[in-house]
Amino acid sequence: MSMFLDTAKIQVKAGKGGDGMVAFRREKYVPNGGPWGGDGGRGGDVIFVVDEGLRTLMDFRYNRHFKAQSGEKGMTKGMHGRGAEDLIIRVPQGTTVRDAETGKVITDLIEHGQRFVVAHGGRGGRGNIRFATPKNSAPEISENGEPGQERELLLELKVLADVGLVGFPSVGKSTLLSVITSAKPKIGAYHFTTIVPNLGMVRTQSGESFAVADLPGLIEGASQGVGLGTQFLRHIERTRVILHVIDMSASEGRDPYEDYLAINKELESYNLRLMERPQIIVANKMDMPDSAENLKEFKQKLAANYDEFEELPQIFPISSLTKQGLATLLDATAELLDKTPEFLLYEESDMEDEAYYGFDEEAPAFEISRDDDATWVLSGDKLEKLFTMTNFDRDESIMKFSRQLRGMGVDEALRARGAKDGDLVRIGKFEFEFVD
Predict the structure, then answer these.
(1) How far is the C-alpha of 318 from the C-alpha of 172, rounded, in Å?
(2) Is 164 annotated as a binding-site member?
(3) Residues 290-305: what's their mean pLDDT?
(4) Is 195 annotated as a binding residue?
(5) Angle formed at CA 109 by CA 107 and CA 113, multiple of 5 degrees
(6) What is the mean pLDDT of the chain?
(7) Is 179 annotated in some ligand binding site?
(8) In this predicted model, what pLDDT tens digit does every residue of 1-38 receive, in sequence order?
(9) Which of 18, 128, 274, 383 has CB 3.0 to 4.6 Å from 35, enough for a Cys bridge?
């Protein structure tokens, strides 16, 4: 089984804020000793941190649920509870994080040490010391901690390489990578020898250096899932230059020019923007008997499909076996990289809007529906958060929650929908009677 994993679906949950405390101090001439309950601590965030030592998402194969710790409860003497430590999750460079529900890109993590908060911890609930007023100098009111953010995420690894080697299986991509870098990919005289991306660093004679990725062989129909399909096409998205490796000896019985067209068609079908990247055609296996004649025919067919004033792609005849032409190819690749800018990987429409962790003022504060058992059901982010943060062990807190519902217009809305005295109203699993 391959130890390479480039996609994963995980669930993260930030820590809940600590509950506020109801407490009183004993002090002469102060009613009930005065309020002395402190606030709860902040819940821990869930943070992704890029670790350049990781090369795969294998850590997420069996561990898919991550939960940060909750904040400490408030204490007496007005002391705040301790905030929880953040949960750090290490991911490899080149990890794209998407929201599983919307498919939008949340962040693209490419720099070593880069940090991103994917789930924010809840704030601590307020203790009764916060609710003291001249009219109510000894309140028995406290808040529960705010729930932490919970979300399902899709992680997608796209290797960080300046140059990508593409081509049909067995055209010599792995052999080329092994010759120009210190990488040791698996090499064999059969199709799909490479089943995971291999990465290596190239250093040219002039001192230039760049990263090269050898991607598993494509075949016709790959963009529709044939062969290894789109499983590894994503890894070419970050590359700035494509080296299109072609078996010019036609040892597999295929036409080199037809191979060239077929691979380009797959790249275009997968992502139109891949064709914006400059290509260098690598005519490999030039040490074989028929290669020179096939190269001549290839150039003629290529020129026939370009207009007179269009610039033809560069073609470099090489032999990975005899190392013929490699220095020239690498120098040309480095030169092309120098003048090729970074490509924007995602459009604005792909990106999630900047996160806002308050309430949407335009969104309705609550919604009313009716269950099959004739119970009125209240829902809505704002209302449900108020409910979660209400301490139902204290009568004053329950009365405060009732006043908040009335202030939001819940009573009037229920009355307008036909609710009568004694009807059951449900919020989550909590039920109470409607009093007209």
Answers:
(1) 11
(2) no
(3) 93
(4) yes
(5) 130
(6) 87
(7) no
(8) 345 678 999 999 999 999 999 999 877 776 667 889 99
(9) 128
